[in-house]
Amino acid sequence: MNPRHAQSRLSSGPPPEAPPAEAVQRLRHIHRAVSDLRRGVPVVLRDGDVRLALLAAEAATAAGINELAVRAAEPPVLLLAPTRGAAVLRRPVERDVDAVAMRLPAAVLQPEALRSIADPTSAQPRGARAAEPAPLPPLAAPALALVKLAQMLPAVLAAFWSAGAADGLLEVDAADLLAYPGAAAAGLHQVAVAQVPLQDAPDARVVAFRAEGSGLEHLAILVGEPDKAAAPLARIHSECFTGDLLGSLRCDCGQQLRGAVRRMAAEGAGVLLYLAQEGRGIGLINKLRAYALQDRGLDTLDANRALGWDADERNFLIAARMLEELGISRVRLLTNNPDKLTALAACGVEIVGREAHTFAPNGVNDEYLATKAARFGHLLD
Fold this sequence. Notes:
Elements (H helix, E strand, L loop, with lengths): L20 H18 L4 E5 L2 E7 L5 H10 L5 E4 L1 H8 L10 E4 L7 H8 L13 E2 L6 H10 L5 E6 L10 E3 H5 L1 H7 L1 E8 L9 E7 L5 E8 L8 E6 L2 H5 L7 H15 L1 E7 L2 H4 L2 H11 L5 H8 L9 H9 L4 E5 L3 H9 L3 E6 L10 H10 L6
Helix pairs in contact: 7-13, 11-12
């Protein structure tokens, strides 16, 4: 399979309608669970009568580990993404598995050991040699999906929980996780707009969007009046702190951002959607971890996979919803990525054409750009 098509959350489909109050409440539930996981608090994932208590390995504390070990129906297992699980166990895993489960002796079941096993940037994972394969519990895939939403390493300590034993722990329905990409997009609405003159586009405006039940915020940069153009230039740009703000030479993101604004200003109209999906959806910290792995010889794709992430984790339903809110249904997409064309078209956006958006290598990002072309299918010629 072409790796650029092995994408778990390159979410697409018809643009979602605004969610009812019940859906908003479920969205809030998921974000509360994300907050708990990041704070090292266990949460319970349920599907019917099956309940699985989860503790993010990256944020695990001795108290949280002890709570799972003492109150669970069975000893907890560590769930890892298949690529990371295969590396830790030093053996291949079956194709198309959702996760790998392993059991650790009680003496090794400690916060530092869990973090080092979960993190491929660790020089010597503590306790990895003591890990033994374990049967994969149900709900393993949604368990990793939930910790990914927290933008933490996809590694979670999991234990079966009896019904009614939550005792204050937040419970999340697995079905709500499957519906999350659409619900997160459906709840988007404009919350602020202001004139923000830019160096290359003095008439620019910035529109802020926020989803109901979520703290995530996305921005649209409007140059001129794109909603009045037949098919304005449009760019879907995932935020890149290192490239956009710091001017990092490792990528071409800053050049793409400012170059897009210049082109829109030259045409007199355009819209740039600035999505809060750093590092193709893996988050800034994980992107920095990927950089550390690239410094050891991995390319962009293999570094993400070593961390347990897929090639692209972005949710393009959000972009489609923003365009809908802005009154824009037809665009000329400024991109080198054919998958963006496919994803947006599947979301109901009419793509009139693709506009190339290439920049010359700078001596540092040469291999990065070559990987984009060879392994992600970007059109850089």
